[in-house]
Design a protein that fits this description.
mainly alpha; two-stranded antiparallel sheet; 10 helices
Amino acid sequence: MIYENSSMNKQIENFIVKNYNELKKICKVITKNHSLQEDLLQDVLLQLLERKEIKLRNFNEDSIKYYIVSIIRINWHSKTSPFFYRIKREFSLYSELNTNTFDLPDNEQQKQFEKEMLLSVIENSYSELDWFHKSLMDMYMCMGSMNAVARKTKIPISSIRRYVKESKEQIQNEVRDKIKT
């Protein structure tokens, strides 16, 4: 049976409504309790809604569950999945900026600094980049690769690497300066 429409098959929709909590638990297991587990489920459900056709041999509960779990697994583990491009990559970049690049001195001021405040400072510093660096960083975060940015902009990959590195360093320096004060 093939269901062709701009919305998902009613049987799949009913399965999702009936088994939503189970799908949340499955996402929790697949992501190993990652903070993006709810985002993963929501993104997969959006992907199902956007599909023009859903091909299944039969629409029993086991087939539907297997189909949805497969999509969840693929979206979580693949670096070419829609979920990765829409959400996980940007989350990874923010995490990289937040944890790996900011080895701050262990003192009382840093201990009081909450994670949310640090992210706010990072976002503020990011918004203060000049238009060129910010445009390239936006493209890099959206496209996920410097090669893709180089192909789209016709700027050499070595220059893209340098501009992205400069942007990261500028953000790091501004965050360090703001934390010290």
